[in-house]
Amino acid sequence: MTTKDRALDAYLVASARLGDRRAMAQLVELRGPRLLSHASRLLGEHDGARDVVQEAWIEILRGLKGLRDESLFLPWALRIVTRRVAREIGRRQKGRRLAAAVKAEADPVVSDAGPEEADAARVRAAIATLSPAQAATVALFYLEDLSVTEVATALDVPVGTVKTRLMHARRKLRAELEGQGYEQT
């Protein structure tokens, strides 16, 4: 996240705390897609993720007064979504491991795709082989551009756990991609 994004979050959170409904709506519009994407990755389905995020927004908006640093809104909100998803998975699976509940997104490879699309498809397929915890960590760190500390906050795990997951995920991704004949430039 850029400094500009953090400043905008801080402004919108401060305004929403004062009861500004437009600021609340802007927060939902601005950060809703990222929360939905995160929930979809963890839950493995879009419809269920949408329901979880709607429930999370109620908790997020009610909890704004307790947020100490307004510029850390996104990691804080992601943590709420993560916890909601975990509860949903627990309800669905009743004791099964999170890995069994989160499905990898299938990405069909189109034969007439260009080299960039083919590379992206191979990377997505490689990410799909990771455990759900590693895939979520990789997605937040690389795709959502969160810092290690923000990923730890979002996933509600220690910073060391994030670093370890990233290390193991990179190793697995490298092995998977090299096994597919992927050449790094």
Automatic annotation (TrEMBL):
Gene3D superfamilies: 1.10.1740.10, Winged helix-like DNA-binding domain superfamily/Winged helix DNA-binding domain (1.10.10.10). SUPFAM superfamilies: Sigma2 domain of RNA polymerase sigma factors, Sigma3 and sigma4 domains of RNA polymerase sigma factors. Belongs to the sigma-70 factor family. ECF subfamily. It comes from Sinisalibacter aestuarii. This is DNA-directed RNA polymerase sigma-70 factor. Transmembrane segments: none annotated. Keywords: DNA-binding, DNA-directed RNA polymerase, Sigma factor, Transcription, Transcription regulation. GO terms for cellular component: DNA-directed RNA polymerase complex. Coiled coil: none annotated. Residues 27-93 form the RNA polymerase sigma-70 region domain. Residues 122-173 form the RNA polymerase sigma factor 70 region 4 type domain. It comes from the Bacteria. InterPro entries: RNA_pol_sigma-70-like, RNA_pol_sigma-70_dom, RNA_pol_sigma70_r2, RNA_pol_sigma70_r4_t2, RNA_pol_sigma_r2, RNA_pol_sigma_r3/r4-like, WH-like_DNA-bd_sf.
